[in-house]
Write a structure and sequence with these properties.
38% strand; 19% helix; five-stranded mixed β-sheet; five-stranded antiparallel β-sheet; 7 helices; Methyltransferase, Cobalt-precorrin-4 Transmethylase, Domain 2; Immunoglobulin-like; alpha+beta
Amino acid sequence: MASRIIFETTENCLSFLQSVFRRSSNCDALPASVINFDSPLSMSRLVSAVANSRGGNIFIGCQTKGKKVVRFDGVAEEAAHSLVFQLSTCIFPAIEGVESEFYLLNEADKKGIVHLFVPNSGLKPHMAVDNRYYFRHGLKEMVMEEQQVRLMYGGAGKARMELAGIINTNGIPDIRENVVEALRFYPKFLIRNAGNVPARIYKFELFIPSDLHDTSYEPLQNYFNRLEGIYSVFSFPSRAPVFQGETFAVAEAKLMADLTNLKTFEKNDIRLVLFSESGVNEYQFKLIETFTYDRKPLSLSMFSANKLLNPKI
């Protein structure tokens, strides 16, 4: 397992690269041209391969001859600072714990050395942007055989469920005589498997303040589980496997807001709990910040006489 190399100054980094460094499978140096956000295949192959091969240190912005660094060509500072984010979009699953340091070479052109530390990932195998799995063999990235991929999945596979988002949070008005009497919300709650094996057993619990819940809405009422304080709690068990990278709507609710319960919106939260083999994740959102009408937070004026907004739903 590779450890991160730490440098206190730019001079320490350059001295290491010029005098101590030798290219290896888990400590390598590459030219600045390897970073190409328009065509990220090279970087995604390299970094995913390192993560699949016990991790390592990568120095970008170096010209090499044999196993030694002979000169520096430097990476633009702007590209260096966006590198970790770009890698997260072209490697699946995203590698947790990737760290990047930038060591400035020249103040005039803002170029420097990128030191990328890739940990020995617990979510491997990681797939590159070309939908292949790679590992490091010497100084090269090699495509994994199917049996290697299967063994890696079996040894380190883990489903990791997380909340992907809440959609449909803009209210639909009930209007009478040009006055908004109530607002209806039909939010959908999305969950995602960010792990590298299918999630087969999980449970999603939704906590809604009871005076906002429409008990006639069967798609939600069918999952009613219990009352807990001011909340009605709905429990959604796993119904089918959630595959790697898959996002789906685990629940749909109906909330009603009017003058009788507006204070509830102003003071309380909606709570979500997701149980899976990777643990328990809890989420909490302020109702007044989450649910809107005409993209604005709910307020008393929305229900006033002759006050009719034109919602963009």
